[in-house]
Amino acid sequence: MGEPEKPTTVSITNQVEQILRRIGTNSKVEGVVVINNEGIPIKSTLDSTSTVQYSAEISQLADRAKCLVRDLDPTNKLTFVRIASKKHEILVAPDIDYIMIVLQKTKKQGSAED
Q: The whole model's pTM is what?
């Protein structure tokens, strides 16, 4: 009685903060978003509109990818997803409590490749 309620959100540890800073220093990285397993943003370097959009879409994609990997081999587990388009690469690293999303420029942005 009288004790403050414990927060129910996932807290980002100092180790994760250091990793986010290190990733953000890469010149190809355009943004980093960390979301919880419900798709709610915990931390982001993107604007709020982009953060909400990437959080919702990638959360659904990660859930489907986890199911796909599990259905193909019940002893296996999803560890990483990479989506490449002409403009960006979206790197998705799911973990137990959160999903990290990194948006970066493609390696050959602006080239005349197919």
A: 0.78
